[in-house]
Predict the structure.
Amino acid sequence: MMDSSLGPLEFRIVAPARGLPMLVRMAAPFGDDELFEFCRRNKGLRVERTPEGDLVIMPPAGGETGRRNSTVNLQLALWAQQDRTGISFDSSTGFILQNGAERSPDAAWVRKARWQALSPEDRERFPPLCPDFVIELRSPSDDLEELVAKMREYLDSGASLGLLLDPFERTVRVFRPGASPQKLDDPEEVHCDPELPGFVLDVRSIW
């Protein structure tokens, strides 16, 4: 439930279709500190912010989506622990992109030097950077075109590699800067070299 102690908020809910993300158009968009405080006080909500300042409140993951997401994060975290050149993050982490958006990819990885360059305060809040590597996993409530647009937003913000996993089409779209997305039909695995040397995503275990 939203905490009324934050003060009166003027907003408009746009097209809250059942089971789909809710778009909340704010009369006065939250700044970074206000957004972090709003999310801290409403921990049951998964919230993103668009470049225009609108809030996107996403429904909780269903069982299959949660299982797939857990498998993705386990694979990335195990590789990151062995590789030791970067830090992995799960879907509960928000990142502030250079266009003002706040996004929470389903899995992410940041090079250690970039992470260590942040202040301790920035690390505790929504880190003001785009991950070097992101994974988005399509759920039943996700619009594919919107996910593709989000992947391009990551690339425009500095990501060097992105994977869009679609368990319904059984496809993986691979995004790299300066290139058209590569669509893989029902792959068994995806190699993430050279951006993440040695990381191979076992897609079979995710489907």
Observations:
- Confidence is low (pLDDT under 50) at residues 1-8, 10-18.
- DSSP finds five helices and 14 strands in the chain.
